[in-house]
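Researcher: Let's do a round of design. I'm pasting the structure tokens now; please hold your answer until I've finished.
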């Protein structure tokens, strides 16, 4: 009887240990994406010709998709993954809040990437585009107007079309940072990845609009960079 009891206790211990190990390892990719997004944002906002300050100050949300490869887009089902963070508050004018995982799919941008890893940054310039992406799949250029974002210290050279766009997009490859058109691509919440990152089923809308969770430690660099560079939205 004692031997059976010992075996049972051992089995339960191993099951618990294995289960916790799987859970702990389950979010590794998501944690890496959040951390890499922070590194990308920090590096981009510290180069001479980066996102114009007055453009960044008007952004409601930022989407960062690090190290997207052309090879990932040869098969239609493949896509780039990253994070989206928005300013907190009902009017999107507070400090930057917890990130939600995002997925970028399809479109012609796979042909623009070449063979190099490319980082993408998207600025959401309206509450309509922010709320739309948090609740459903949005096609850039159709469901939300999109344009290549201007670069440099001011946005004076930006065209009227650019200034009216709901989403401004940028790319960085081989160290070169520039505006890039992502029209035809779709952007959507990756709620499976959110479940892994936060340890429970939770929607992008709840993360961003309802303050349902605290930002994970992996988002520290991303949020710190944005809160230092652009702490409040300025219309």
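Researcher: That's everything. Go ahead.
Model: Designed sequence:
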């Amino acid at each position: 009887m004692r031997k059976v009891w010992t075996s049972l206790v051992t089995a339960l211990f191993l099951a618990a240990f294995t289960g916790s190990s799987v859970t702990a390892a389950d979010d590794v990719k998501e944690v890496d994406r959040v951390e890499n997004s922070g590194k990308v944002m920090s590096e981009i906002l510290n180069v001479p010709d980066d996102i114009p300050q007055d453009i960044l100050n008007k952004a409601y949300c930022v989407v960062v998709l690090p190290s997207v490869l052309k090879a990932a887009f040869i098969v239609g089902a493949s896509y780039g993954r990253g994070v989206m963070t928005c300013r907190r508050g009902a009017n999107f004018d507070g400090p930057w809040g917890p990130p939600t995982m995002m997925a970028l799919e399809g479109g012609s941008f796979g042909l623009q990437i070449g063979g190099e890893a490319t980082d993408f940054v998207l600025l959401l310039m309206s509450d309509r585009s922010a709320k739309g992406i948090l609740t459903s799949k949005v096609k850039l250029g159709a469901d939300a107007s999109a344009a290549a974002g201007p670069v440099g210290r001011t946005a004076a050279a930006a065209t009227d079309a650019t200034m009216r766009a709901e989403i401004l997009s940028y790319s960085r490859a081989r160290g070169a940072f520039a505006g890039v058109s992502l029209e035809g691509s779709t952007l959507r919440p990756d709620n499976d990845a959110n479940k892994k990152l936060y340890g429970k089923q939770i929607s992008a809308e709840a993360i961003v609009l309802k303050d349902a969770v605290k930002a994970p430690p992996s988002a520290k660099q991303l949020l710190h960079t944005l809160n230092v560079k652009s702490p409040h939205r300025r219309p």
